Amino acid sequence: MPRSGGRYITDFSNPSAKQEAVNASDTMNFTNGVCRGIYVGTGGTVPVVAADDSVSNWVVPDSYIIPAFAKRVNATGLVSAASMLALF
Question: What is the predicted pLDDT for the residue at 17?
Fold first, then answer.
């Protein structure tokens, strides 16, 4: 299971302990490692790179949390989505 802050993530009912602004990039991963979700303030298409390097294009509405272990949001394929936070 992916780790966050040196600990294994086992309980998704608690709020995130750390957040990081998402700067979409095709090469640069989140500085805090693999997150447990991505908050999307303004909806659109979000190409999420999972911990296993697979890519999923999420089409989400405003104020949505993508429930995924992710290490990056790709810039290629990002459409309209903005104001994103990686949740750790």
Answer: 86
